[in-house]
Structures are given as C-alpha cells and as structure tokens.
C-alpha cells in the first residue's frame, strides 16, 4: 500500500457558516499532522537456528509456540562421518596418553636400554682405571690400556646417546599428545554441531525441518525470538521519509486484536531506499502494551509529526487551484486571492496567511 500524509483534526470552535451561497469563514481547530505507514510486528532478539553440519534430523524436541531456555537442546542430527572421525580421534588421544604415561612400553624400553648402558659404562670405567694404574707402573701393556680406554669412551658415549634418545622420544610423544588432544577437542566440537541448542531464551515461531529430513550445513532449522518483547517494522513512503525523527510518537492499530490501538516511539530509521515499493524502513518500540508472542502481525500506523492546538483552517473544497480562494470584499464583490497554506488533509487546509477568522470565502 502506498503511504500518504494524513492530518487528524478535532474541532475546537464551531464553523461559522450559513449556506454555500453566503460563504463560510475560516475556523480554528486542533490540527495534528501525522504520516501514515503500514508495517508488521516482529519479536526482539530474533534469530534463525542454523545447522553446522550435514545430517538427518532424527530428534525434534520442541514445537512451534514453545518457550525455550538459553542453551536448551532443540534438535539432533545424525551423520556417520563425524561419528567415525570422533571415534578415531578418541582412540588416537587415548593411545597418545598411554605412550607418555609412566607405564608407557615405549619409554620403559628406552629406560631399560639406558640402565644397561650405564651398567656397561660402570664396568668399563672400573676396568679402564684398573688397567691405567697398571700401565703407569709398567705392569700392563699399551695395547691393553688403549683397548680398555676405547671401551670406556664407547660406553660413556652410548649412555649419553641413550639419554638424548629418551629425552627426544618424550618430547616427541608430548607433541603427539597435544596434537591428539587438539584433534579430539575438534572432533568433540564437531559432534556438538549435530546437537542444535538455543542461543538465547526465546519462543519457537517456526520450524523448517521435520524428523527424517536431510539438513545441509548452514541451512536454517528453526526461527526463534523473544516471547515478550516486540517492535514494529514500518514502511514509510519516500515523500514522507524526511519528516521522520527518533522519538516521534506512533499510534498503531492491529486488526487482529479488534483494531486495538497501541502506542510506540520511533527507535530506528534506516537510510536505504527499498526500490521495489519506494519506501524506507522505520522501526518503533512499544511504550505500553504490545501484541507480543506473535510473528508478522499486520498493522497500520500514524507517526505524529506535529500538533497545533489552534490552527486556522478552511474546507479543502473552497480552494481554487493550488493556493487561491474567492473572498468577499467590503463592497460585497468576490475577489480571488492567494493564501499561504500549512498542513492539509483530504478535507481541511491550514491557512498560514491571507485570511482571518472574520474573512468570508466562497466555493469556486
């Protein structure tokens, strides 16, 4: 529906006229200027619940109209791929933990090899220093001395190498454990993607999928929003958009509730023009009662632009052209004059200048 500017008027003083032939006089009236807009009611904190993975919907734990708590489980999907990935990650993580534990067979084998190397080093050390003492007293040959010295150095190097191997293996197993833990956490999070929970407390307004249906990644499963807080999304005509200001009072009629009137205030003005219907979006928050708990109710709204408790007005049918009227002069003759117009509606025009409440005007 194309929006139009409306002006609501309430009579303060009676119209001083007798007949069309005798003319009529401008009348003071309370004149309220308002911009008409159509719109809909939507819940606050609205969001769509999207699937984070591909799977079949196997459990639907809520229905439309039901209120849910934050973090509540709403839907469950089933998929073989994440289950297999999760099981593999779990097995690798457990094996990595076992490899680095105190009872690890890998580490125990290296520790046994290190102990054996140290035993050999001790024996070679005792033998070397014994032969060395004899060699210094010329009681042992040089060949025996060099042989025992070589064996001692070899066993000492073997101990150092096995110590490094044990340290290197522990570090490697630690890195593997961290990687396995990361993969395990990732697979656990991936499994959570197949259990859809609510982000915030809200009401289920619509469910897009039924149990047994395939759900793709990033596909919406349900629409959720606040169960108690709502706002009005209005479409204001391009010609009236410049009159919109934050905080303006809005009178809203909802046909679904026996045309009950609600009050709201303009809370947000969007600067982008909708080229399909040449309107701008304007939102308003309810200030009192609100038709909450429903999604998309159609409303009609009047945004109050200005109020003049005492405006000088004439019937619109007395206008000649855009801004002229026929007025009675002192000699009784009729004369066409221009007036300065203000606000107007389908019936009345506000006179800013050119006439007084004593003037007598005639229909053209």
TrEMBL record:
Q: Which GO terms describe its cellular component?
A: efflux pump complex
Q: Which organism is it from?
A: Arundinibacter roseus
Q: Which GO terms describe its molecular function?
A: efflux transmembrane transporter activity
According to UniProt, the name of this protein is HlyD family efflux transporter periplasmic adaptor subunit
Domain named CusB-like beta-barrel: residues: 232-282
Q: Which InterPro entries match?
A: Beta-barrel_RND_2
Judging by the UniProt lineage, the source's domain of life is Bacteria
Highest lineage ranks of the organism? Bacteria, Pseudomonadati, Bacteroidota, Cytophagia, Cytophagales
């Amino acid at each position: 529906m194309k929006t139009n500017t409306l002006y609501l008027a309430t009579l303060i003083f009676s119209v001083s006229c007798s007949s069309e032939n005798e003319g009529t006089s401008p009348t003071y009236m309370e004149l309220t200027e308002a911009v008409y807009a159509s719109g809909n009611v939507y819940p606050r904190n609205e969001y769509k619940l999207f699937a984070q993975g591909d799977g079949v919907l196997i459990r639907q734990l809520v229905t439309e109209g039901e209120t849910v708590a934050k973090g509540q489980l709403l839907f469950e999907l089933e998929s073989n791929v994440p289950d297999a990935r999760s099981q593999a990650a779990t097995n690798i993580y457990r094996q990595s933990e076992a490899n680095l534990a105190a009872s690890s067979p890998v580490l125990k084998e290296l520790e046994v090899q290190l102990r054996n190397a140290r035993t050999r080093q001790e024996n070679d050390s005792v033998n070397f220093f014994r032969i060395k003492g004899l060699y210094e007293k010329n009681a042992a040959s040089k060949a025996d001395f060099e042989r025992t010295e070589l064996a001692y150095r070899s066993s000492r190097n073997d101990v150092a190498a096995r110590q490094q191997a044990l340290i290197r293996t522990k570090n490697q197993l630690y890195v593997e454990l961290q990687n396995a833990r990361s993969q395990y956490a990732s697979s656990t999070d991936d499994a959570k993607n197949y259990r859809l929970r609510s982000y915030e407390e809200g009401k289920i307004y619509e469910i897009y999928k039924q149990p047994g249906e395939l759900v793709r990644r990033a596909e919406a499963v349900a629409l959720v929003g606040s169960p108690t807080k709502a706002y009005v999304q209005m479409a204001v005509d391009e010609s009236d958009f410049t009159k919109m200001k934050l905080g303006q009072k809005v009178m809203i009629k909802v046909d679904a509730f026996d045309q009950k009137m609600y009050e709201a205030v303009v809370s947000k003005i969007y600067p982008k023009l909708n080229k399909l219907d040449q309107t701008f979006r304007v939102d308003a928050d309810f200030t009192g009662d609100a038709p909450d708990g429903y999604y998309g109710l159609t409303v009609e709204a009047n945004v109050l632009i200005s109020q003049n408790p005492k405006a000088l007005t004439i019937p619109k049918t007395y206008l000649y052209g855009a801004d002229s009227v026929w007025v009675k002069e002192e000699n009784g003759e009729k004369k066409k004059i221009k007036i300065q117009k203000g606000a107007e509606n389908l019936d009345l025009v506000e006179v800013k200048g050119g006439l007084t409440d004593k003037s007598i005007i005639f229909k053209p």
